[in-house]
Amino acid sequence: MALSYSLGLKKGYGGLTVSWNLLSLLKAMSDENDNYALARIDLPGASTHGWQVRLQRRGVKYAKFFGDRVFGSSLHALHAARTWRNHLLQKFDESEQARICKRSTRNRSGVVGVSRVRVVTNGVSYEFWQATWSPEPGRRRCVKYSIRRYGDREAFRLAVLARKDGVGS
User: Fold this and answer.
1) Other C-beta atoms within 10 Å of 66: how many?
2) Which residue has the higher pLDDT, 106 or 31?
3) Does the model's pTM come out above 0.70?
């Protein structure tokens, strides 16, 4: 990484001359959380210096380069890259929430988190209505109601009630 930042006032440290902008840049780079999905690109031979944002969600890759020259300085490029990344992450969060709350086209029960399941064990078929939900991040709960025991409508009704109870709505 070539350290040829000559903007601003300079201060000497044991024979080294470091610009205030470089010190600001190093301070800005120090927080790891702020640099999530960011990479510093310095290719002096190609005159390429800047920040690249790289993210992937659901198999789709997102990347954008923020050049120092275009944004006037490395700090401005870093700020623009973080802003773009944060906007993208916010869009991901909104789409994830939308996906969780919307009924999938594959849903045949008409109720999110309630599905009819058929299992064949040793040649014997078992059918039941299943309710699933997530009480907290990283945990999943599931309750099954046998169609043979409760009948189709009652098993479905019980699964819907269990789902509502579990989700808390």
Assistant:
1) 23
2) 106
3) no
**82: DSSP letter:** H
Lay out the sheet containing 60-67: strands in order across: 38-43, 48-57, 60-67
Look up the domain containing 163 and give its range.
114-167
Using the 3D structure, point to which of 46, 69, 101 is the last residue of a domain: 101
pLDDT tens for 28-82 read: 555 556 888 899 999 888 889 999 999 888 778 999 999 999 999 999 999 999 9
Which residues have a Cβ under 8 Å from the Cβ of 16 and sit 6 or more positions away?
Answer: none
Are residue 96 and residue 19 in the same domain, yes or no?
yes
154 and 120, same structural domain?
Answer: yes
26 and 69 both lie in a single domain: yes
